[in-house]
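Q: Hi! First time doing this. I have a protein sequence and I read that you can turn it into a structure. Is that right? Here it is:
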Amino acid sequence: MTDSPKMAVPRVDLDDERLRITEWRFAPGARTGHHRHGFDYVVVPLTDGLLRLETGDGVAHFELKAGRSYARLAGVEHDVVNAGTAELAFVEIEYKRP
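A: Yes, that's right. Below is the predicted 3D structure, encoded as structure tokens:
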């Protein structure tokens, strides 16, 4: 029997016609599952941590620092994994329209 992967836990705080705001919490080793972003988005880290990004082009690591936001355009495809040893959390803000 194979263990199922640990999954990140999302909590949607707001979802209206303009925005979706989701808090994500990752136990060590937890992942989002492969997905494609349909909207431009901003990530606001709540904790420091290390992400492993698994894409069709390979694997990359990205260090998060609490309070240091970053933005990405729609179309990004990846699986996001907590590659650290502590819980990782961030808020994701998706812009549904310009």
